[in-house]
Amino acid sequence: MSITKNWWKWLSMILLYYTLVAGLMVEVPRLPILHESIRNLYFHVPMWFGMLTLYAISFAQSIMYLKNNTLRHDIRARAFAETGLLYGVLGLLTGSLWARYTWGAWWTNDPKLNAAAIGMLMYLAYFVLRGSMEDPSQRAKIAAVYNILAFLVLVPLLFVIPRLTDSLHPGNGGNPGFNSYDLDNDMRWVFYPAVLGWILLGVWMAVQRRDLYELESNIEHADN
Amino acid sequence: MLITNLLKTSAILACAPMVLLAQSVEMADALRSDGKIWIVILSLGILLAGVYYFLWRTDQKIDRLKKDLKS
Lengths: 224, 71
Fold this sequence. Notes:
The complex is a heterodimer of chains A (224) and B (71).
Chain A: H1 7-25, H2 45-68, H3 71-102, H4 111-131, H5 136-159, H6 161-164, H7 185-223
Helix pairs in contact in A: 1-7, 2-3, 2-5, 2-7, 3-4, 3-5, 3-7, 4-5
Chain B: H1 2-24, H2 29-33, H3 37-70
């Protein structure tokens, strides 16, 4: 693995090992109810940052597809959306576990939680839509339009609506993202590298999928 | 003067339970003091190494397939 071309893969590994050690060892604020589970900040929250980054790349690829009509962009949009969905599911699962032991229930009818669930269903529908069409260029065009729409709905759904109402989830109910976490400065030193590390890992997985689907389509063309 | 002193004292007294609360919050102090948290970190480190090894190997396989398809 050449370091000049794949430096970001190495970076992701270094950052995640740092996250692992610092995330479990460095002092965190002593807060009742949360206790050590505050360390979930380094693992649960980066899933959403990762999901959003991957969906944003997918969104950009869909726009590029509509501009250029090259299937390469459709393949990329699919690969990044799939990895984004994986991160979303992992974010929901870890969040649900965290909620069980801090809020007392696996799921609450919280606007942030419900919005996240709706967002996941929206992207599931993207794959159902893709699967329902045979013709590659028709599928690519309709899926691109849907994907653009889904992303444009997802952002206000996750980051605007929950802030307009009351929510148990930190960063909502009128508060801007972070201060309500009691995120002290020491935690930032672990949190931001953790976010970048998890994002880069997601990009790596998405790039592998992209390569695989490109190879697949090359083989199909060779057969015909 | 007396009133301000009284106010100060009562303010300090009012904060006392919070200080006590902050100290009595249970954390994994014992876990860390006997050093065994390292076992967890090492285990997770091994898992992470496995994931990265797998990704790296898959990269290699993809590169090989790309080369094969080109020729």
